[in-house]
Design goal:
Length: 790
């Protein structure tokens, strides 16, 4: 800086030093802060005048004090926040002036006055897009140097572009968050004098709310001045910026004031209560005052009212904001609207279930999305559903809204750039059920295209919404009926879901849709399968997992992992080489080591039955290892059927070396829970008896089951491959898996894996099968075999 400016700053620094010395001798709040702010003003003005003299003319710009400095509430170590508003941002001369201005102001304050400076650069044209925090600082702005007309133009632009509803919500949420982080009541021993309940911000926020609602701000009260005085003394004693009034600082400040510390803090708590009550009373005025929530919705005595003949999307935004503010919604059956702004409507529906119910209450949902409201009383033909199509849909929204951020599903949700497209797909995913002549996913896709066209959404959004509606059952079907750990399953799935965004959106929709069917449809096992499929598909889509199954590579990995672990390496190698591909890719090395011991025992005539409780799945894994024989799998499934246990999944494996050993892992539940200890003992005893030669038919008859019953009612489909997949749908019943496995055994076929569950109100199962010698089966072979049951 020039010598004359340096001298002026030194003079101001001396004034500030004396002002600081006066504070403990003559403590005050706002009066002291105003004198402090005046010193800062003079420093900026001195720098500005000197630069104008140097440049030869006064530039067209405004230098504004903002925030606490703008309010002249400058405590001893508060930051100096300034905003520069230029007339013409394209002027090179003005740009050079501003750069040097920032440099000189920085030197003046941080070197001379020992105060930190925060800078902002704003154009008047920025006003419509300013966030709530920036807008708040500018609400308290005042001109320190430069153009008065620019300052007025900025103020006018801020007023005209004030997004009232959004601003009110942001300020209230900001306070509630601050109360949670600091102190939520003024009646606290160690208060935060600025951000906590009863702090200075309580008063500031009350004024911001007033201004947004079109009222005049209140003047600082004695209580406010008292809290500000305490903050001034805290800064002075700490020698730095500090707002938390600790016990040790309380004692020091009480000594300065010459009063009892406890008496001092009681008086401070009383002032804090007054400030906090001021904030709460002002917040309550939202339910008493008339103000514009948005350009389409007005608040009047606590009720949100839609203006006539407005854009439907803009009106929806106003109702969404009113919902967040806790206002009543005017009840109506119809609302006259003029078109729908898609982006605005997307914003509104993304705000969750409460907003959607209010949109329905005021008739706006009918105006902008009649496809959904037509489903209000539509009864689903799937008997598993507990609600009408309309109510089910809103509960899907609720499930997405309430996903726990700490869970894998929560992490997927947090990764989304915009949840609006997902919410629109949710609202449309079942509207196709109005059409009985086509699958509802196909009819829904047509409706989705029409809605997106009517809302004026872009092609990318339209295609994504329509895709989600068309495929909303695909992932559910996969996790219910397919072995998600099999590479074949993942490859088939990513042919449908070909990018990460689609995968994430469909995963959330799948969870929320299933969970909204009834209180019992979403299970820990389904969640585990869903997350596993999402993880495996993510790896494939990112290229981090090889698409081809290299059996030899998996064998090499297993052998490397198992070498040197107190086992015979030749024995391990022989066992690993005897295992089929589907086992190798889905079994970890430690489990392989355990299974090797089971296989050795089985070859010695001692079958093994091992039980592991899978609490995270609410199920139990039962591993059975025995010498293979015809019909063995159906006999083991008969044991579960006899004991009323529900098969969730099966991984079947038979070693290729002789004598062949069956190594089957069943995932089983009892009433949707892990198998109780007493039932485990019964199951193990029964399984060992059947493995030892006891007739499973006799066991079933002793438990009241018809061992000769054949499955007569069912539908099936066959996905050709090696293994092929037989998908079965039949009336729900625990015996279905047993009966079909017995049929497959009668054909001499091999079951490598199975999934059993529910689908569209029916029992469902998928059997991964090969023919004799593990050859692929044809559609004709499947049709011929299943025809014997029909």
């Amino acid at each position: 800086m020039e010598t004359s400016i340096s001298t002026a700053i030194q003079t101001l620094a001396e004034e500030r030093r004396k002002l600081l010395e006066e504070l403990p001798a003559d403590p005050s709040g706002l009066a002291w802060c105003e004198r402090h702010a005046a010193i800062a003003d003079r420093a900026i003005q001195d720098v500005y005048r000197e630069m104008c003299s140097e440049f030869g003319e006064e530039p067209q710009l405004s230098i504004l004090a903002t925030g606490g400095y703008g309010r002249r509430e400058l405590s001893p170590y508060s930051d100096i926040d300034i905003t520069v508003v230029p007339e013409d941002e394209s002027s090179k001369e003005l740009d050079g002036f501003i750069r040097k201005l920032f440099q000189n102001v920085h030197t003046a304050f941080e070197t001379g006055l020992r105060l930190r400076v925060g800078y902002a650069y704003r154009l008047i044209s920025d006003a419509p897009g300013l966030d709530a925090v920036t807008r708040t600082g500018l609400l308290d702005a005042r001109l320190v140097a430069g153009s008065k007309s620019l300052t007025k133009r900025l103020a006018d632009s801020l007023s005209l572009t004030m997004p009232v509803g959004e601003f009110l919500i942001a300020k209230i949420e900001e306070r509630e968050d601050a109360f949670e982080r600091h102190n939520e009541t003024a009646l606290v021993v160690e208060p935060n004098l600025k951000e906590g309940a009863g702090g200075l911000r309580s008063f500031h926020c009350a004024n911001w709310l007033r201004e947004a609602m079109g009222e005049r701000p209140a003047k600082p009260s004695e209580a406010f001045d008292h809290v500000l005085l305490m903050r001034n003394l805290l800064h002075w004693k700490a020698g730095k910026f500090q707002d938390l009034l600790t016990r040790s600082r309380q004692a020091e400040i009480a000594d300065i004031l010459g009063i009892d510390m406890y008496e001092m803090m009681s008086g401070l708590a009383a002032s804090g209560l007054e400030l906090h009550e001021e904030f709460l009373r002002t917040k309550d005025k939202l339910h008493e005052t008339r103000f514009e929530i948005s350009k389409a919705v007005t608040a009047l005595r606590g009720e949100a009212r839609i203006k006539p003949h407005v854009d439907g999307g803009e009106a929806a935004v106003g109702i969404a904001l009113a919902t967040q503010l806790g206002l009543r919604i005017e009840e109506s059956s119809t609302v006259p609207t003029e078109g729908v702004s898609g982006p605005a409507a997307i914003f509104a529906i993304s705000k969750g279930e409460a907003t959607l119910r209010n949109l329905d209450r005021c008739g706006l949902l009918q105006a902008i999305l009649p496809e959904l409201t037509e489903c209000r009383t539509l009864m689903p033909r799937d008997t598993a559903h507990e609600y009408t199509v309309f109510e089910h849909t809103l509960r899907v929204v609720r499930n997405i809204e309430n996903i726990d951020p700490a869970t894998p599903l929560g992490q997927i949700k947090a990764s989304l750039n915009d949840i609006g497209v997902l919410m629109l797909a949710v609202l449309l995913h079942d509207v196709g059920k109005r059409d009985l002549d086509a699958p509802h996913s196909e009819a829904g896709e047509v409706a989705a295209h029409e809605v997106c066209r009517r809302w004026g959404l872009g092609d990318d959004a339209r295609k994504l919404v329509a895709w989600l509606v068309r495929e909303h059952l695909s992932m559910a079907r996969t996790v219910r009926l397919r072995d998600v750990s099999a590479p074949q399953t993942v490859e088939e799935f990513i042919e449908i879901v070909d990018d990460k965004e689609k995968l994430d959106l469909l995963t959330l929709l799948t969870y929320a849709d299933i969970a909204a069917v009834s209180s019992s449809t979403w299970t820990p096992a389904l969640e585990s399968f869903l997350i596993e499929l999402h993880t495996r598909a993510s790896l494939r889509l990112s290229g981090d997992e090889a698409p081809e199954l290299d059996t030899n590579a998996y064998r090499r990995v297993l052998l490397k992992e198992l070498s040197g672990k107190d086992v015979d390496e030749l024995e391990v190698q022989s066992f690993v080489e005897s295992l089929p591909a589907h086992y190798l890719v889905s079994t970890d090395p430690e489990t392989v080591r355990l299974h090797l011991r089971f296989a050795n025992r089985a070859r010695g005539g001692q079958p093994a039955v091992d039980v592991v409780q899978r609490l995270t799945l609410s199920a139990t894994d039962v591993t059975v290892c025995a010498l293979d024989r015809p019909g063995l799998l159906s006999q083991m499934l008969g044991v579960f059927y006899a004991l009323d246990l529900t098969l969730v999944g099966l991984r079947a494996c038979t070693t290729e070396t002789q004598p062949a050993v069956a190594l089957d892992v069943f995932t089983v539940s009892f009433g949707g829970r892990p198998i109780p200890a007493a039932t485990v003992r019964q199951m193990v005893t029964a399984m060992e008896e059947v493995l030892g030669g006891k007739s499973v038919d006799d066991l079933m008859r002793s438990r009241g089951k018809d061992a000769d019953l054949r499955q007569r009612l069912f539908q099936y489909a066959y996905v050709a491959g090696n293994p092929g997949i037989i998908e079965i749908r039949a009336p729900r019943g625990r015996g279905m898996a047993y009966r079909f496995s017995r049929l497959l055994a009668e054909q001499g076929w091999n079951v490598l894996a199975a999934r059993v569950g529910q689908w569209a109100g029916n029992g469902a199962a998928a059997f991964y099968v090969t023919g004799p010698g593990h050859k692929a089966l044809t559609q004709e072979q499947i049709d011929t075999a299943l025809a014997t049951l029909g």
